[in-house]
Design a protein that fits this description.
globular, four-stranded antiparallel sheet, binds coenzyme A, five-stranded antiparallel sheet
């Protein structure tokens, strides 16, 4: 099915504010001329991002709605003006990515407003094929930070909430066989540089308390805990904050 483009969207290579490749670390031009290392997310890389997402988050509910559903969501970080996103390529393949935005609530609202029909269609199709998804879907929708419920949604605060900045790191993932090589560190540096250029000095994220590798990574990189929450299905999550400082 042709999903069309976002309103006003041009065939995209990269946004100028995410350019500036010289400041991005570990950029190597391989023998075949392929550029390995960090680069802004573009439409050509979306399929690779979907593949890494599915490897990095096996069993994640969003993954069960299919590749086209994930592609729509991830494309919003290329297409919407507040998106900030990078991939890490190795030998032509995407092996890691980072997605975020300078205003996550606005991003979510725009995504829903513009793409709700497509997204709902994918979800309904998945549920029709596998009705067992209905329970997890209902729980997910209860946890979803709907605009009218404020930044914490229906999550119950265990500690916090601290005041939260609008910018968010939404997803960071590295393919399992490429971990512990500094790829996530390179991606976050590029992400912070891009945010700083756009006048952002603080960024937030949400991570499951059970996600030990991610917590170890964020602690190593000076993220501070801003609150602990319980989602409606009982999962404990942390909100973390990081000061990136302005140039
Ligand atoms: C979390 C994640 C992105 C880290 O990616 P990575 O490329 O392996 O991270 P880096 O190599 O840049 O790690 C830098 C440092 O973080 C810490 N770290 C990263 N993974 C760790 C782990 N599994 N255990 C302990 N420390 C870890 C270490 O201090 C590491 O430095 P070291 O390797 O010199 O000890 C990766 O494990 C991943 O994709 N996990 C699944 C997806 C996910 O949970 N994402 C985060 C939630 S959105």
């Amino acid at each position: 099915m042709d999903l069309g483009r976002w309103p006003g969207e041009k065939p995209l290579v990269s946004r100028p504010e995410q350019g500036g490749l010289p400041s991005v670390p570990r950029l190597n031009v391989g023998e075949a001329g392929a550029i390995d290392g960090v680069a802004p997310l573009d439409r050509e890389s979306l399929s690779g991002v979907v593949t890494v997402f599915r490897e990095a988050f096996p069993g994640n509910l969003l993954g069960t709605f299919g590749r086209a559903f994930l592609t729509e969501i991830f494309a919003s970080y290329v297409d919407l003006p507040d998106g900030v996103a990078f991939v890490f390529r190795q030998d032509h393949a995407v092996v890691g990515f980072i997605l975020g935005s300078i205003d996550s609530a606005q991003h979510r609202n725009q995504l829903l407003r513009q793409r709700w029909a497509h997204l709902s269609l994918y979800v309904l199709r998945a549920v029709a094929t596998a009705p067992r998804l209905l329970g997890p879907l209902a729980r997910y929708l209860r946890c979803y930070p709907w605009p009218m419920l404020g930044p914490a949604g229906r999550q119950r605060a265990l500690t916090g909430p601290a005041p939260l900045p609008p910018a968010s790191l939404v997803l960071l993932a590295v393919a399992p066989s490429y971990r512990r090589r500094g790829i996530a560190a390179d991606l976050t540096q590029a992400f912070f540089t891009a945010l700083r250029r756009r006048g952002v000095d603080q960024v937030k994220l949400v991570v499951a308390a059970a996600n030990a590798p991610a917590l170890a990574f964020y602690r190593t990189h000076d993220w501070e805990t801003a609150g602990r929450y319980l989602s409606p299905d009982g999962e404990e999550v942390y909100r973390l904050l990081h000061w990136i400082g302005l140039e």
